[in-house]
Write a structure and sequence with these properties.
Elements (H helix, E strand, L loop, with lengths): L21 H14 L25 E3 L2 E3 L8 H10 L12 H6 L10 H5 L9
Antiparallel strand pairs: 1-2
Length: about 130
């Protein structure tokens, strides 16, 4: 998204249950990024890792450094495809549409391939 002169990258979604508050979760995630050597030379530039909090139940959070739901998740196919695969019924608390509905509403955009297809150079079919 944005800067396209970079290598392909792996993107995924993870659903988890936590007792952590949203800020505490974000702090832990940023710690993982730091330990993996995250550096972003410029906005949307290539990076080793990038972890975002897309949703936090049905909560809406708008604070400096943390906005939930993620403000651009609903327009990013590379976010919605893995999210809709693991949680198609997850509801965007502002738009009131599910991940599956948001994905279905996207027009043509960036190419997203399942992991097996990526690893096999595009030869493997979804679910294979």
């Amino acid at each position: 998204m944005g800067y396209t002169l970079q290598r392909e990258f792996l993107n995924g979604a993870l659903e988890l249950r936590t007792r952590l508050a949203p800020w505490d979760l974000l702090e832990r995630l940023k710690g993982i990024e730091a330990r993996m050597g995250k550096s972003t030379p410029f906005r949307n530039g290539p990076r080793r890792i990038d972890i975002d909090v897309l949703l936090f139940g049905d909560r809406r959070i708008e604070e400096r450094g943390l906005v939930v739901p993620h403000p651009r998740m609903h327009v990013r196919r590379f976010v919605l495809e893995p999210l809709a695969e693991i949680a198609p019924g997850a509801v965007h608390p502002v738009l009131r549409r599910t991940a599956a509905q948001l994905l279905a509403g996207l027009g043509p955009g960036e190419a997203v391939r399942p992991w097996g297809a990526w690893a096999a150079g595009g030869r493997q079919r979804r679910g294979g």
